[in-house]
């Protein structure tokens, strides 16, 4: 009986240890939880997305496998509901669902679409992330510009509940800002940076947020 009790205790400890909790990340808690030295896998999803629901048990299985790893058990897994957290959806330029991103040292890489937990786990344990180019510092979600885009996305979500003319006014102001900012930065940045900070890029950001506002209005 004594050995049986010890076995149950060990089994319970194993199950508890191997089932790390997936963290729900929000526009409000993201900055406090995702620190520079952390390693994260984050799944962007929506409740209405069928593919997201299919990925859910796969992502949980990947969480359990990483929890049992002797070298990568500190890797954290998170979920972001894009409907209730438009700021994060905009900061990460999420254009398809589900989207899984890998974050290490505040460098962001996007995983290829998959429905296999081993693909998710090996991206971390086999360090496959090294073969993927991270987002540039300019459009990184952790950059000043990335945070600004997130703020615009969150603002659009709030304004969508008000008059359409208010939303049009805000978008028009952002369009003017998008067109004029490269000119303003031209005086303080190098030619290489100016090449990356171009009007087409900022127009892309504008139309991305325009698309976000339209999809929000018609939900």
Number of helices: 9
* Overall body shape: globular
Head-to-tail CA distance between termini: 59 Å
Q: How many strand units?
A: 5
How would you sum up the major sheet?
Answer: 5 strands, mixed
> Which parts are unreliable, with pLDDT below 50 for 5 consecutive residues or more?
4-18, 192-201, 213-219
Given the helix and strand composition, which structural class is it?
A: alpha/beta
Q: What's the pLDDT, averaged over the residues?
A: 78
Can you give the helix content as a percent range? 40-55%
Strands in their spatial order, largest beta sheet: 1-3-2-4-5
Q: What is the succession of H and E elements?
A: HEHEHEHEEHHHHH
- Report the sheet-strand fraction: 5-15%
How many whole angstroms does the radius of gyration measure? 21 Å
Describe the protein in words.
The structure is a single chain. By secondary structure, the protein is α/β, with parallel strands linked by helices. The protein is 54% helix and 11% strand. It contains nine helices and five strands. The protein has a five-stranded mixed beta sheet with strand order 1-3-2-4-5. Helix 3 links the parallel strand 2 and strand 3. The radius of gyration is 21 Å and the shape is globular. The C terminus is likely disordered.
Tags for this model:
219 residues; alpha/beta; five-stranded mixed β-sheet; 9 helices; 11% strand; disordered C terminus
What is the gist of this entry?
The chain has 219 residues and is α/β, with parallel strands linked by helices. The protein has helices at residues 2-18, 30-33, 50-68, 86-91, 117-125, 144-159, 164-185, 191-196, 199-217; strands at residues 23-24, 39-45, 76-81, 99-104, 107-110.
């Amino acid at each position: 009986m004594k050995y049986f009790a010890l076995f149950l205790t060990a089994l319970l400890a194993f199950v508890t240890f191997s089932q790390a909790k997936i963290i729900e990340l929000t526009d409000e808690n993201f900055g406090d939880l995702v620190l520079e030295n952390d390693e994260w896998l984050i799944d962007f999803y929506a409740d209405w997305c069928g593919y997201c629901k299919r990925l859910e048990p796969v992502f949980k299985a990947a969480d359990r496998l990483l929890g049992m790893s002797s070298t990568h058990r500190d890797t954290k897994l998170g979920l972001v509901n894009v409907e209730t957290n438009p700021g994060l959806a905009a900061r990460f330029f999420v254009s398809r669902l589900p989207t899984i991103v890998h974050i290490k040292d505040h460098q962001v890489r996007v995983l290829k679409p998959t429905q296999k937990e081993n693909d998710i786990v090996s991206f971390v344990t086999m360090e496959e992330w090294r073969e993927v180019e991270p987002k540039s510092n300019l459009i990184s979600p952790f950059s000043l510009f990335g945070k600004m885009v997130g703020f615009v996305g969150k603002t659009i979500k709030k304004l969508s509940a008000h008059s359409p003319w208010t939303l049009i006014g805000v978008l028009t102001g952002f369009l003017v800002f998008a067109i004029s900012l490269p000119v303003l930065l031209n005086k303080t940045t190098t030619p290489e940076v100016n090449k990356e900070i171009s009007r087409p890029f900022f127009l892309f950001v504008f139309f991305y947020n325009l698309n976000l506002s339209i999809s929000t209005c018609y939900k």
